[in-house]
Design a protein that fits this description.
The complex is a heterodimer of chains A (275) and B (662). Chain A is α+β, with helices and mostly antiparallel strands. Chain A has 3 helices and 12 strands; from the N terminus they run H-H-H-E-E-E-E-E-E-E-E-E-E-E-E. The longest helix of chain A has 39 residues. The radius of gyration of chain B is 39 Å and the shape is elongated. Chain B starts with a helix and ends in a 14-residue tail after the last helix. Classes of the chains: A alpha+beta (275), B alpha+beta (662).
């Protein structure tokens, strides 16, 4: 009998632990979970800094001529960007003037917060990034995240020094999008994506007069109407639309930017004031 | 020790009972048990083998629920593919009440606890507490929506309770008809997985508002959506409301336009809540109904309606060769967009007050006035009593028939001894009084019946009136109970008296005359490959026909409809053959009795090679007002004809290809 008890002891212990976990208050469990992330976050952050250092020393290995050439390229790019910025300022002025004439409500203003990517977590169920900024930079849950190619996703959790971003390829992200050149909002949602495959999403409630195919893709952009993302940011390319059986709408497939799987730096947009 | 063992041996014999063999009483119990087992097994086998279907059915009806979702209706197009009636999506936020069971229970407990804690003596009943709990939970979800879209909507507890008790598995709409911006905000702010979901239903959309309203018709709510070939007919079924045609083409072609309902069958618990995360046992998507391509040309329709304006009247344009209706206008009309999603009481009362429900083109029977003289002419020519080269009367403005004076153009007509073409062009009543007398009322009525003016046209619309009358002496004897007098013949010959026709009939009559045949079957369905209609020939000689056409062309050039000679209506290179008419009808309006006039105009064009025929009727508003067809009805036809030839003469690259639904 004692021998049998000894044999069953591990199971009994597990049972007690599980039962104990069930009766522990939710507050404690939430605290434990958050603490786990907070405690493990420095490991990820440290690894990220180590990678940065590694990249820094890799760059240090370049010759002076290469660096001078790169500096020239960068100067040219800066010049062209300066020009684009000036043009943008002019266009923004014109837009503001027209909005004033038409008495249109202005879009939300944003403050940009650039953040390095610490970790990428891609599974069939969710696709996430961990970034190296959190509450310490006033990041908020739901804030839009973008990169040079368009939309990255939305902040889903914020910790002390890190934050988790749900990518737009994740099924938990839904946006109000428009097909470029159109004004009618349609629903974009991340699709069921394979872990190592190219990412995609689905669009629904597409008006019947919108056509797209793999050979004639349409650019899908944020509508700005949803109040989270500013308008005009690229979401992806519509590669297929087909009518639904009810004849009211079409639904379709969106191909996302392949760079989403290899992002190293993103920008979190923090609303300046809530409309 | 040995003594102890002996004692034990002695006593041990008493510790065991010896088996004496089978006790007959025990054996009997064996049989009883076996028999009971056999009965039980047989019963189970019987239920399993013979009553399996019954039990399956009972299990299904208790544990399964069926949801039916109506399919959107098909679209209605004009002949060029312009959308006349479509479907507009309606975005809504809905709440799946059957996913909130735990929340309702928790709220119920919380409210009850609060009452008890407050030591309230007046604790509501359990039913009232449940209602409070449901309202509270649903309101908390509604607050989320209010915060996102900036509204202040409260839960309607009566509606919520009704929905909960009768339609638990159907989504409960919290906010309907969301604006695009509201829909977009909710898309980004609502969690993807939540009992709150964005949902689309649809309602009819009318891009041209009130255009062809009575012809297109409207839809009403269909509470009894059916899904053919979808299983589970005997299950408790929740049906979303659909729509059903109530008037016009929507009613006539309801079975074609009606979409096929989709549906799902779900497992539920004993309280009727859907099992958590349960996938449907059966599921089918709704499909849209078939589309309908009408023969209407929306440009001509709009031109006709604009030309009638605020007057009361109707205009019909018809393709002479195929009988396809190009325009079917009736005023007053109503704005179809007010029917989507449903017509309010105030709007319905307004339509009733304006008497706008009736499609006057098919639902109103009116005396045709002098447009009927074309029929009188044909009857006279065919019977040989009229000769285009010989006058039959001397018009001095008045003639005595029987014991009554009959006048021409209110005694103003002094046409003298005119021939048939001039008599038609100037609409000389005295000439046609004489013609009627020569023809006889029976033969005149026979001619009218030959042109099918005494019966419905059979157009694909509901509520076509049957009140049309082509009278003869037998009719008067039977219906009025009086003898036929010569004055009745005189009245009939100029389309007055007892003669009643619809504008659609007169349009078909004009088309038939244009084709030199006796009947035109009108249709509202477009067929790009429709053959030319052919019926019995009118039977006029070429000379007789030439005289008739000459008279009708004269009407629009120098006669009673010479308004069409104005630059506003003139169509280069196109001669219009027409005939005006003005009929009177005794009515009582605002306590006063008097005559109101009906201004008529029938025509076809081009006179030499006819393509389009028209009939226009405008009803006078003021008692005793002089309301001539040339002044009030002909301009309506002129506007439509101008639009028709303008479209026809467009450069080839601007023309639309014939429209077909693939």
């Amino acid at each position: 009998m004692p021998k049998r008890f000894d044999q069953a002891r591990p199971f009994l212990t597990l049972g007690f632990v599980v039962a104990g976990w069930f009766v522990i208050p939710t507050v404690f469990k939430t605290f434990t979970r958050a603490s786990f992330f907070e405690l493990t976050a420095p490991v990820g952050v440290a690894a990220s800094y180590a990678r940065d250092l590694q990249e820094y020393w890799t760059l240090r290995l370049h010759s002076n001529s290469e660096l001078i050439e790169a500096g020239r390229d960068l100067a040219r790019l800066n010049a062209s960007y300066d020009l684009a910025v000036q043009q943008n300022i002019e266009m923004q002025g014109e837009i503001a003037r027209l909005e004033g004439i038409l008495r249109l409500p202005s879009y939300t203003g944003y403050q940009s917060e650039h953040a390095r990517v610490v970790r990428r977590d891609f599974s069939g169920w969710w696709q996430r990034l961990t970034i190296r900024k959190g509450k310490n930079y006033n990041l908020t849950v739901g804030a839009p995240v973008v990169f040079s190619g368009g939309v990255v996703g939305r902040v889903s959790e914020v910790f002390a020094y890190t934050a988790t971003v749900d990518l737009i390829s994740s099924q938990t992200v839904r946006l109000a999008a428009v097909v470029e050149g159109d004004t009618r909002p349609i629903s974009y949602q991340g699709g069921l994506n394979p872990t190592f495959g190219s990412a995609g999403g689905v669009i629904e409630f597409v008006p019947l007069d919108i056509f797209a195919s793999a050979n004639a893709t349409k650019r899908l952009v944020t509508s700005g109407l949803g109040g989270v993302f500013p308008p005009g940011l690229t979401i992806g390319s519509v590669i297929k639309v087909e009518p639904s059986t009810d004849g009211l709408f079409k639904s379709g497939t969106v191909k996302l930017d392949d760079r989403l799987a290899a992002l190293t730096e993103v920008t979190v947009l923090l609303p300046l004031d809530t409309p | 020790m040995a003594a102890d063992e002996n004692n034990l041996a002695d006593r041990s014999g008493r510790l065991f009972e010896s088996q004496k063999g089978y006790d007959p009483r025990v054996v009997l119990f064996y049989f009883i048990i076996v028999a009971l087992l056999i009965v039980l097994t047989s019963g189970l086998a019987y239920q399993q083998l013979f009553n399996a279907e019954l039990h399956t059915e009972r299990e299904s009806s208790q544990n399964q629920r069926r949801i039916l979702i109506p399919g959107p209706r098909g679209n209605i197009y004009d002949r060029n593919g312009q959308l006349l009636v479509g479907n507009r999506p309606r975005f809504a936020v809905i709440l799946y009440l059957d996913e909130l069971r735990a929340k309702f229970r928790a709220e119920f407990i919380r409210i009850r606890k609060n009452y008890r804690a407050a030591d309230d003596k007046d604790i509501p009943t359990a039913d009232q507490l449940w209602t409070l709990a449901r309202v509270s939970v649903v309101q908390s979800y509604l607050e989320q929506i209010n915060a996102i879209i900036g509204r202040d909507i409260k839960v309607d507890s009566v509606r919520l309770n009704k929905h909960f008790s009768r339609e638990l598995l159907l989504p409960y709409p919290l906010v309907e008809d969301l604006a695009p911006a509201e829909y977009a905000r909710l898309l980004e702010h609502l969690p993807v997985v939540s009992p709150l979901q964005l949902y689309t239903t649809n309602t009819r959309e009318y891009p041209f508002g009130s255009a062809a309203s009575q012809t297109l018709g409207y839809v009403g709510i269909n509470e009894d959506v059916e899904a053919d070939n979808f299983p589970g007919e005997k299950l408790r079924t929740f049906k979303q409301r659909g729509s059903i045609g109530r008037d016009g083409l929507e009613l006539k072609f309801d079975s074609l336009l009606q979409g096929e309902a989709g549906g799902s069958i779900f497992r539920v618990d004993p309280l009727g809540y859907r099992l958590r995360d349960a996938k449907p046992i059966e599921s089918r998507l709704p499909t849209q109904g078939q589309n309908l391509v009408t023969s209407l040309d929306i440009d001509l329709q709009l031109a006709a309606e604009a030309a009638i304006g605020d007057q009361t009247g109707a205009a019909v344009a018809i393709d002479i060769k195929t009988g396809e209706i190009l325009a079917l206008a009736s005023k007053p009309d109503y704005d179809l967009s007010k029917f989507a999603p449903r017509l309010g009481h105030a709007d319905a009362a307004d339509i009733t007050a304006r008497e706008a429900w009736t499609n006057l083109a098919i639902g109103g029977a009116f005396p045709p006035g002098s447009t009927f003289k074309i029929l009188t002419s044909i009857a006279g020519l065919r019977r040989g009593v009229l000769d285009p080269t010989k006058p039959i009367a001397d018009c001095q403005g008045v003639i005595r028939i029987g014991n009554r004076d009959f006048v021409c153009d209110n005694r103003r007509g002094h046409h003298g001894e005119v021939l048939l073409p001039e008599a038609i062009a100037h609409s000389c009543d005295i000439y046609f009084f004489g013609a009627g007398r020569l023809i006889s009322p029976d033969l005149l009525a026979e001619e009218g019946r030959r042109f099918h003016l005494d019966q419905r046209t059979g157009i694909e619309l509901p509520h076509e009136t049957s009140r049309m009358v082509i009278p003869d002496p037998a009719y008067k004897e039977k219906v009025i109970g009086e003898k036929w007098f010569p004055g009745d013949t005189a009245n009939m010959s100029i389309g007055q008296g007892y003669v009643l026709v619809t504008p659609l009939e007169m349009a078909c009559f004009a088309a038939s005359v244009a084709r030199n045949e006796v009947f035109t079957q009108p249709t509202l369905l477009h067929n790009p490959d429709a053959p030319v209609q052919h019926t019995e020939s009118i039977g006029l000689t070429s000379t007789q026909r030439a005289a008739l056409i000459e008279g009708m062309v004269g009407t629009t050039t120098y006669g009673t409809a010479n308004t069409l000679n104005l630059d506003l209506f003139k169509i280069p290179g196109v001669r219009i053959a027409g005939k005006t008419g003005t009929a009177q009808k005794k009515v009582t309006k605002d306590g006063k009795t008097g005559n109101i006039n009906f201004a008529w105009f029938i025509c076809f064009a081009p006179a030499d090679n006819p393509e389009i025929a028209m009939a226009v009727m405008i009803e006078g508003e003021t008692l005793g007002e002089n309301f001539g067809g040339g002044r009030y009805a002909a301009p309506v036809a002129g506007s439509v004809l101008k639009k028709y030839f303008e479209k026809k003469n467009r450069p080839a690259d601007q023309k639309l290809a014939p429209f077909k639904i693939e």
